[in-house]
Write a structure and sequence with these properties.
This protein is α+β, with helices and mostly antiparallel strands. The chain folds into 4 domains: 228 residues, no CATH class; 152 residues, no CATH class; 208 residues, no CATH class; 137 residues. The protein is built from 24 helices and 21 strands. A 6-stranded mixed barrel has the order 2-3-8-5-7-6. A 6-stranded mixed β-barrel has the order 12-14-19-16-18-17. Strand 2 and strand 3 form a beta hairpin. The longest helix has 40 residues. The radius of gyration is 33 Å and the shape is elongated.
Amino acid sequence: MSQTLRLGFRFARRELRGGIRGLRIVLACLALGVAAIAAVGTLRAATEAGLVEDGARILGGDLEVRVSYRPMPQAARDWIAARGGRLSEVVEMRAMAVAASGERALVELKAVDQAYPLYGALTLDPPQARLAPGTVALDPLVAERLGLRPGDLVRLGEARFRLAGTVASEPDKVASPAILGPRAMIALADVPGTALIQPGSLVEYHYRIALPQGTDPAGFAAALRAAQDDGGWRIRDARDGSPGVSRFLDRAASFLTLAGLTALLVGGIGVATGVRAWLDQRARTIATLRCLGAPARVIFVTYLIQVMALAALGIAIGLLAGQGLTLLAARALESVLPVPPRLGFHARPLAEAALYGVLTALAFALWPLGRAREIPGAALFRDAVQPQAARPRWSLLAVNAAAVLALVALVVGTAEQPRFALGFCGAALGTLLLFRLGAAGLMGLARRLRGARRPALRLGLANLHRPGAPTPLLLVALGIGLTTLSAIAMIEGNLRRQIGGQLPQAAPNFYFIDIQSDQAQRFDELARAQPGVAEVRRVPSLRARISAIKGVPVERIQASEDTAWALRGDRGLTYAATPPEGTRLVAGEWWPADYQGPPLLSLDARLAEGWGVGLGDTVTVNVLGRDVSLRVASLRQIEWQGLGLNFVLIASPGLLSSAPHTHIATVRGDPAQDARLLRVVTDAFPNVSGIRVRDALEAVAGLLERLGAAISAVAAVTLAAGGLVLAGAMAAGQRRRIRDAVVLKVVGATRAQIRRAWMVEFGLLGLTAGLLAALCGTAASWAVARFVMRTDWIFLPGTLAATILGCTALTLLLGYAGTALALRTRPAPLLRNE
């Protein structure tokens, strides 16, 4: 074996001295795929490192205690202070900012005490501005929208504030993001004067704690919970300063890694193409060595060493390119990323990207190398025109299968959602098989139609099924990239249609929140009296945290991946005597309108399935610090598309109706009267906040545009890899194309006939690839929309038509370019050299 390796290294070194022209496609394909995966992994690791290093600043302290509706008891504050903890209190709620001109905007109000911030610094613009009692700091966007300058007056609730400046830097912005509106900040001492906090108002209290040096945050949190926690607190430390961001990064990185892997798999086909072309160029050399007695294993080792050496170079280039792409992405996404990434050397994502490259190279290179090993030397001379039905030996097939399984295991093992990653692997395999079967079908059809009368048509069809025809390779190379692109286009098109088409027609104009019970009737009368108002709906609204399911604490519940979100944080809760409009029960029955028994619950059927909950089971919710057990009486299917007043949790009246709570209302009517309606309602009820649905939809549409651009960019990487493979396949067959063109011209064929023949060949290839890509893309988009995004899906024929036409045009363009180059070749020099 050592002698084989020595000879293999010697032969490989000598051949590589002549250049790598035949293996450039291997180099480019691996570099592109590895670069995409390395860039995604490195950016994710750098951002997570930033989250970890800045955890205390992001959270606002070493520990945070979050309480809904009510402040922390003084006894708990004294307990913290007695153990050396420094406390900072932050109160968050929604409010309407009203300028002196009458212009108004919804803001996320954040009231901070004098100790804020414990870590980092709050920076205002102008720099000399300070947040003092009686002043407010606004997000630059809302200040611009209201036409405000420093010194102007702003009304929040029933209090007026002087604008100190705009918020330039908020140290804990990631941990407490402004979701429904831009940020407004005031002093905590000014909150009572606003009269925004009423019984049941949507208010959250955040208590940030700076611990003494050397104190274990986890131990302190456990002791605090055991000594003071009343069941409604959420405590987290700086190591988990922004769990939502971490989950988003994990899922986004998993998706982008799979997209990069798609590019790498397409590149793997390029590896197989490049190796096959490389072996075709070396066929005479290999055949001569075999005929002179060189062992087959020496030939195999020689070319495996060459391929893996080039693969290593391609992987190295990809890793370097990935680092460069990370720097570019970090700068381009600086305003989007939650924290500045800690750029530098992150070994793990680079090692994973390199391992992806090695396994891909092995998985796709071993088959053509093993096949060449099994062909006798004399048969290699005829393999170009009479391919041998050879396959690698079983031992090599086992190694090839092991490389494929290792690649699948790496994909599934490193994914945030293993089941989704496994489905991706299965879909990739199924797509490859479908395109291979499509190629066989096209070749079979061309063989049946070989009796066509027109010479150009007959020749073009013959090119599709002749020995050694690249039809399967070209179909797969074109199809995978276009499948990805068409699927993404269909998903994006469906989302745009729902957000930009269906939703605005069905959605209300406004949500009004924090309506007090003694204001409810007057609110209804006032809203209905406004011009253009067609409908006013109002329901009670409470906030509750699910604390146990069937008596088991939520921390121990194994919920499904798509329903675990509902067990984190607070959920909306309402009560109703009769089923809300549009309710569709899928199990159980609604309680009688005059029901006065133990509390019952109507639950979203999808959540019930993900939690393993059925009729008769109990769901315990914590409302205002008190645990209430609700027995599941019915399961509902909720249609969220209309943006109406839908709650996943609806309880029976009785116990909850006596708890302090507010109301939430929707108003539908003439959009032209929106400004008047908002002004009248918020002037009459300063504590009530109005959320304009159209503004929220426009924000979502803007986010979708940015998301669509990012997804399209990733799809473009896959398409670029497919283009490389296609170009490589064209280049690999160019010698044969030139030889055919010369022979045809010698026997009397005109340039126009040859050109038409090849246009028939490439036109049919492009049309078939486009049809299959449209089919696979449609199926993939339907599966993602229905089972991942849980949304409706419609067929978009325009998108698929663009895919098919684009695929056909691309194939014809590349085919025409190759044909034009072949037709320029002069016959005499080629025939003399042959």
